[in-house]
Specification:
Elements lengths: L3 E6 L3 H13 L3 E7 L3 H11 L3 E2 L2 H7 L4 E4 L3 H13 L3 E4 L7 H14 L3 E3 L7 H11 L6 E9 L13 H4 L3 H17 L3 E9 L10 E8 L4 E7 L10 E6 L2 E6 L9 E6 L18 E4 L5 H15 L5 H18 L2
Parallel strand pairs: 1-2, 1-4, 2-3, 4-5, 5-6, 7-10
Antiparallel strand pairs: 7-11, 8-9, 9-10, 11-12, 12-13, 13-14
Helix pairs in contact: 1-9, 4-5, 5-10, 6-8, 8-10
The chain binds nicotinamide-adenine-dinucleotide.
Nicotinamide-adenine-dinucleotide binds next to helix 1 and helix 4.
């Protein structure tokens, strides 16, 4: 089987830190070119990996032959760059969130579907072994009917001169657009159903940028499960919990430290069906939770491997791509309420 030839648009940032190493680690892939709007970045990253480098997309597409493009640029670039890659007949691995709005995202995905080209969005957290474990436990009824879900995700992101994430027109929003989108994608993955209704509040409490540094979303899923998502740009990294909690009629699942770029953290599962009603409520200490550990694999390698498997199967698969558009529908609703 011939290797999948990759080019990269937006070569600094997450591309250099995580995705290019993951492409290089994939035995079915090879890197053939990089492009970045900033000439020094294009040159540094191109030389680092020993591939031709460019400062415009057209120049790269005209001078190199690749099958797939990884796009790791700021959100406001996603739609146009992915459409351009499609015009040149490429498959696309696009960073999250898909686009500035759900309408743009839908248009993009429809265009790829019509052309029979693959497009995948970089939500890597569903590949974490503990999130896969949570999904399997829920599907197997190991916490019964899920009645309450909570996700908490934060980082420290102060005012930074020129930062695209701090401008609505460039990033599409703040803490929710950056962190909350991961939480929605993950919760729908673990539950195996859609969130259908949201109510949300956003604040810019701590910093002076125009997008929110704090957001809370409460939601209801299709089957009626309730939950909430808290995201913050103003909690110190050392105080960040990055956790997912699911409570059900037969127990709970709690992960701590798993909403992350690395496969870290723990999952605690308690299976403790109630039995009889106990008015004294003195039956709470008997249950023994089971603790699962993260396996420490590379989430970016897992998502690249998953994408390459789809390409090699010859059958485009838009299941998670459609989920990524749905995430944006809920995000649009959140910002419409604020
Ligand atoms: N899945 C994850 O773990 C993860 C983590 C970080 C970022 N991201 C996503 O990746 C994307 C990029 O984020 P980042 O943190 O790497 O940003 P960044 O600003 O650190 O890096 C973006 C790179 O794109 C380049 N660039 C900017 N405009 C360009 C253009 N028009 N054409 C070509 N290159 C351009 C910049 O010079 C820079 O090298 C965003 O969508 C972000 O949400 C995902």
């Amino acid at each position: 089987m011939s290797k999948i030839k990759w080019s990269v648009i937006g070569a600094g940032g997450i591309a250099d830190r995580r995705t290019i190493p993951a492409i290089l680690a994939n035995a079915q892939s090879e890197l053939c070119a990089v492009m970045d709007r900033v000439p020094e970045v294009a040159k540094t990253v191109g030389e680092k990996y020993g591939v031709p480098f460019f400062t415009t997309e057209e120049e790269m597409f005209k001078n190199t032959d690749c099958d797939a493009v990884y796009i790791g640029t700021p959100v406001m670039c996603h739609y146009e760059q992915a459409m351009l890659a499609l015009k040149y007949g490429k498959h696309v691995f696009l960073e999250k969130p898909i686009t500035l709005t759900s309408a743009q995202g839908k248009e993009l995905v429809d265009a790829f579907k019509a052309a029979g080209k693959q497009i995948t969005i970089g939500y890597m957290m569903k590949h974490h072994n503990l999130h896969e474990k949570a999904q399997a436990l829920v599907a197997d009824g190991q916490i019964g009917q899920v009645v309450d879900v909570r996700a908490q995700f934060s980082c420290w992101y102060p005012d930074i001169e020129g930062a695209w994430r701090q401008k609505k027109a460039l990033g599409g929003g703040g803490a929710f657009m950056d962190l909350g989108v991961h939480c929605i994608e993950l919760i729908e993955f673990v539950l195996g159903e859609e969130i259908t209704e949201v109510k949300a509040l956003c604040s810019t409490l701590t910093f002076s940028y125009e997008v929110e540094d704090s957001a809370v979303m409460i939601f209801r899923t299709k089957s009626g499960t309730l939950g909430h998502i808290d995201v913050n740009f103003n909690v110190p990294d050392k105080a960040a919990q990055s956790k997912l909690e699911l409570y059900g009629t037969k127990g709970y699942i709690q992960t701590v430290g798993t909403l992350s770029q690395t496969e870290t953290g723990t999952l605690t599962h308690l299976y403790a069906p109630q039995g009889d009603y106990v008015a004294q409520q003195n039956n709470r200490d008997a249950a023994e939770p089971v603790i699962y550990e993260a396996e420490g694999a590379n989430l970016y390698e897992k998502q690249i491997n998953h994408f390459c498997d789809i390409l090699n199967s010859g059958k485009p698969n838009y299941f998670y791509t459609d989920r990524a558009v749905h995430v944006q529908v809920l995000v649009d609703e959140l910002y419409a309420q604020n």
